Each structure stands twice: as C-alpha cells, then as structure tokens.
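Hey there, shall we discuss this one?
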Amino acid sequence: MYGAAYAKNLRENLLSATDGQGSDRALMERVKKSDLKVYKDKDDVMEDALADLLPYIDIKPQVRDEIAAKKAQARQRLESTSRALTDNNDEVVTLDEANERSETESLVTKPVISPISPLVFDPEADIDRAVDSLRFLESGGKKNPYKTKGKKVTKGQYKGEQAIGAYGVMESNVPIFTKEYYGEELTVEQFVNNTKAQDKVAKEFLLKHYEKYGNLEDGISTWFTGDPLDQAIARKADDGSIDINEYIVRFNRQYNLK
C-alpha cells in the first residue's frame, strides 16, 4: 500500500510527476521508502481512512473522544508489537539505511516479536501455554519442580519465607490461594505434594486476573508482585534477584516460543 506522503505527492504533483504517458512510475520513484506506511490488511486501511474523516463528521464530543482514545491505544499496541524492514538475510534495516540501499535490492516487512510486546492471549486456547511458561520461569530446569523450595526471602513482606512448588507460591499465600483457586485450603506440605493443586492454582489465578484486567501481562505481574504491571513498574518491584521488567521479558520470551 502507498502511504500518506505518496497520496499527498499524487494530489499535488500528478501532471509533473508522470512520464508523459499517464504513468505514475516517476511519481512512485520520487517517494522515499521511509514515507511509505505498511498496512497489515484491509481492516487496517479502513481504520486509518475513517480516522482521517473523524474531524469532518458531526458526532458528539464524548463519542469523538472515545474513538480517539481507542485509536491511540491501537497505535500504541501496533508500535510495540512492531514490524520491521528486513533484507534478504532477514537482517533488520533502519529507515535511513533503506533510503541508502539500491533501488533493485529487495526489502520486505516482517513482524518482529518484541519480548515486551503485548501478548496475544485467548483464555480458552492459550491458558495451558501461559501456565507452562509460568512454570518454566519459576522452576524450569529443576529435577522435580513441584517439590521445589526456593531460598528464604531476606526483605519485604515475605521476609523469612520460601517460594513453594513449580510456580513459586510464597508460603503464607498457600492456604489463601488453595482455598480461593483450588477450592480446598491446603498446608504448605500438602501443597508441595499435590501437583494437581499447584497446576490448578496457577491456571485459575491467571484466568481470574485476565478476566479482571483484560490482558495476560497484568495477571503475570500480579503473580510476581501482587500488583498489575503499570503499578509494579512504577514502584520498581523486584524480588531481590530480578525486577518486574525482566520477569515480564523472560515470561514473554518463553510464551512466544510455544
């Protein structure tokens, strides 16, 4: 698809930019690659076109503000998930580099999965993948992850406690979590010896917090810090080993591999 710069150039320079035979090839060649916008599909084109018409449509200010807010959120999601120009060797090429490349060199756009990109999550289709990723993050590589007991915490609200089991549940949370997410209050020892309870607690916790926040990242952040992601980042939450940013990066990396 041609971008906004191309369209403007077309309107202003239609006659002078053609090759005399009605072809716009000359016009196309005058537009830099960096001026072109890549549309993923026809819906993306439609949204962009409608957005440009908003200022001319007589609608209530409240509705206009809601549409503008949704557009900003969509743009932020698109920018963070990102698409990148790549060459024949799948190496990412910057826009400045693209403009310096030979016109005959083939450059394409491909999705680039950023480790901190918002995650695509369908609670029915992806919950097992999310639980597996959380388990790997908390106890991956352990010979018997469900029997795992972490090092004693030296500071904060969990000082003196250990993370228990495959998902790293803090000892004081075991009776609370098992009662709420497993349906039966268990002791630490009972929990360590019950793989079914550990799996169900993690699964139900993530599902409930997805329902509450509408995204998986806030659920993962709440599991690690007790707070949704923006609050955890704001207070620079960490467990003494890694902070919330690194935790989310590691989770996303594992989740995107599956």
Observations:
- Strands lie at 83-86, 92-93, 108-111, 163-164, 169-170.
- Residues 14-20, 24-36, 77-84, 110-115 have pLDDT under 50 and may be disordered.
